[in-house]
Amino acid sequence: MSDASEHSKKVEEEEEEVTPDPQELSDDSSEDEAAGEMDFLRNLFSSTLGLGSADKVLDELTLSGVAHYINSGKCKNIICMVGAGISTSAGIPDFRSPGTGLYANLQKYNLPYPEAIFQIDYFQEHPEPFFTLAKELYPGQFKPTICHYFIKMLKDKGVLRRCYTQNIDTLERLAGLEGGDLIEAHGTFYTSHCVSSCCRKEYNLDWMKEKVFSDDIPRCDKCSSLVKPDIVFFGENLPVQFFTSMKSDFPNCDLLIIMGTSLKVQPFASLVSRVSKICPRLLINMEKAGQADPLFGMLGLGGGMDFDSEKAYRDVAYIGTCDDGCLALADLLGWKTELEELVKKEHARIESDNKKEKASDSKGAAAAAASEPRKEE
Hints:
Layout: H1 7-13, H2 27-49, H3 63-71, E1 78-82, H4 120-125, H5 128-137, H6 146-156, E2 160-165, H7 171-174, E3 182-184, E4 187-194, E5 202-204, H8 205-213, E6 227-231, H9 240-249, E7 255-259, E8 281-285, H10 294-299, E9 315-319, H11 322-333, H12 336-371
Parallel strand pairs: 1-2, 1-7, 2-3, 7-8, 8-9
Antiparallel strand pairs: 4-5, 4-6
């Protein structure tokens, strides 16, 4: 995760994600940067010397062209890369939007700087601000969005290879993606561990939820150290699975769909350059993101996205909300009605489950109150 010492500058430059920006990585991070440099040099020499050519997979660089490719039967391994933009319609704020982002509303925690709430050293000394914030964001209070269920449909249709998410809200899991479908690059609330390196006892979501909503600072039953959700803080490494899975997933990708991220947080952003040279890439976002340097883009060089140059041949941008983009693509695929019905059915199920849970909690509280001895008048 990036160093927070220049926090005021980085607040404007970094990704608007509901997760800290993890850049202080293990040696894998250095290897990833080196691989990116090698990819750039290969592309440079290939284009300059006229070695190789870019095959155009899409009939046209439009959403319709992407839909036709998916329906052709040739697209069997789709990877989704997603960020905070897929969860904002669920009511979860991103980090850095002026006025509404999480960082804009942390004054009440009396932090030395906004990023401190996700800095591991600060957390170990002052865990209270993080757990107060966690109570506001805790999984189970929000429903998955249309975009989440579109990804689930890709799985049901047998074409999703993996979803790589920067989010920590677990909405992908609530929408029906399972462990093997998902790489939670910046960690998750789904599990928690004791922070002591000598202990590392694991705790589940329900255990942590009980502590958080009881306003108790979670401490390990075994050694009394702090217990932290498995989200990546500043100063922590990304999950090992992120690095191991990307090496096998991306070379075999037939279509990369990028949604709700400005592609500024590394090493996550570098994943766009790990697909093959002919693999189409679709961006669904409020603005064009991940573009190469303008000069390199004109020359067709580098690993960045190229939507507008004369040499563009595989990158497509849908500018709008992630939900609108997924609905538009589902419509072109002939899946729109199915998607809308899935969302309606699943939201009804979640509401029903929440009502049952609240009723159960109320009964439990009533039973506990009834069992207490009555004070004599």
